[in-house]
Specification:
6-stranded antiparallel beta sheet, globular, 37% strand, two-stranded antiparallel ribbon, 8 strands, alpha+beta, 153 residues, 4 helices
Length: 153
Amino acid sequence: MADSFGDTEWLARTRASGDVAAWLARIPYARRIGVSAAPAEDGEGLIFRLEPREDNVGNRLLPALHGGVVAAFMETAATLDLMLAAREPRLPRIVDVSIDYLRSARVVPTLARCELMREGRRLANVRVQAWQQSEDVPVATARLHFVLGEPGA
């Protein structure tokens, strides 16, 4: 991902306009699993969306989304949300991920909201909550730690 985000002018321009769709267009896996983002209706950041796709099903008997797809969705959301929320354009690299799967994620649209817990000079911590029907009933939560790199470096 860092190679495709090496153009510092493009990164600064898309960041200033909040064009997360342009970032998602450069991440093939995010396109494959069906990730999109839009401003939250309450004005509090972005809401990321994972489309229900047959290829994302892990348990066909329930049916339920594959846990790896849910994890990739939350990781993508956290990374892009951090890129947008950081004080200056930075390229985050994941150091540590902790995911709590709270219930089966059915094959329906899955939403996620991120919260930047801490941004230091070199490290950042992001919390993600994913849900389907109600934000009060999450299907998974995650905590991610990132190293913050300089674009183009």
